[in-house]
Amino acid sequence: MDGVHPFDALMPRQIAAKAEDAGVTKARLDLLSMLLLAVLAGAFISLGALFSTVAIAGASGVLPYGITRLLAGLTFSLGLVLVVIAGAELFTGNNLLVIAFASRKVTLRQVLRNWLVVYTGNFIGSAATALGVHLSGIYGNSGGQVGRAALAIAQSKCHLTFDEAFVRGIYCNALVCLAVWLCMSCRSTGEKIGAIIFPVTAFVAAGFEHSVANMYFIPAALCVKWWAPAEFWTSAGLTQSDFSAVNTGNFLLHNLLPVTLGNIIGGVLFVGAVYWVIYIRRRPVIEAAPAEHLHPAQHPHPTTHPHHTEPTHRP
Q: Given Cys at both, which of 149, 176, 177, 211 links 260, Cβ 3.0 to 4.6 Å?
């Protein structure tokens, strides 16, 4: 093992090589497997989002803001834990395919195919989970507090300007891809969970924006807004007009679009490209032995005695 304990974490250069190999594997998945794994990832992230929504329901005005955000982040971490350990294809994490592309191990066509299929699958899984959760009636729990929390989360996201959503998307996926990067160094399940919790909690607590999470958060709120019965609105003390920003146009154009673009920048440039330049751009090579250390038979050029001079040839 060259003195390395089998349970030691991988070093950054080894992580880069592992990320490169993982990118090749992901890019070459068959279409059905890729799509199904992407649907699973959308569902997994949605379960983390649901956990987060329930955890902070009713916390506004009761817990300090920072504690509420910390709680939201810790519980949301469930989503990426499921993706990494159970196995699934997440668009934001797959932005690291740029490492394999930069090394010319996969083509641009393969990268774009993966992103398109995985993004579509993530959307299907997230939206389907949002609908299923709505049909379960969970939004009405605790006198409608869960539904109220879902609507408040979506309202805040749909109120962001394009620039705000874009920049928040950049920092979000930088942290998500760093979580994935750290997981590649880990040898055990417990280590991977620990590597995920802090970066994911940080991006949620800070209010950064994750495209796949928003594929659940906002559709879940839209389901409540469109289909919740009158009793819900009465018990929650709300009206639909209180959440006028929560609509399909704001979801797709003012949130999902800029957040997705920001996620790509954060994952591709801030993490994948940077680490490729540092660790893979110039791979270490075994240097040739100095000429004076070579056996005479191995020397590339005949040598002369140090005091011997070549005869002078005159015309």
A: 211
Amino acid in the structure at residue 23: G
Q: How far apart are CA 124 and CA 42, in angstroms?
A: 7
Nearest to 44 by CA among 90, 8, 9: 90
Task: Evaluate whether 93 touches 83 at the Cβ level (below 8 Å).
Answer: yes
Q: Work out the end-to-end distance of the chain between its first and last CA atoms, rounded to an integer number of angstroms.
A: 64
Are 64 and 149 contacting, i.e. CB atoms less than 8 angstroms apart?
A: no
Class of domain 12-282: mainly alpha
Largest CA distance in the chain: 112
- DSSP code, position 9: P
CA distance 203 to 42: 18
* Domain definitions of the chain by residue range: 12-282
Nearest to 262 by CA among 155, 181, 172, 160: 172
Q: How many CB atoms lie within 10 A of CB 48?
A: 23
* Closest-CA residue to 138 (of 45, 50, 216): 50
183 in Cβ contact with 86 (< 8 Å): no
pLDDT digits (tens, 9 = 90+) for 157-190: 999 999 999 999 999 999 999 999 999 999 999 9
Q: What is the distance between the alpha carbons of residues 158 and 246, in angstroms, rounded to a whole number?
A: 6
CA-based nearest residue to 84, from 48, 32, 126 = 48
- Tens-place pLDDT, residues 12-27: 999 999 999 999 999 9
Task: Reply yes or no on whether the pLDDT at 294 is more than 80.
Answer: no
The answer to whether 137 and 50 are in contact (CB under 8 A) is: no
Strand partners, 63: 60
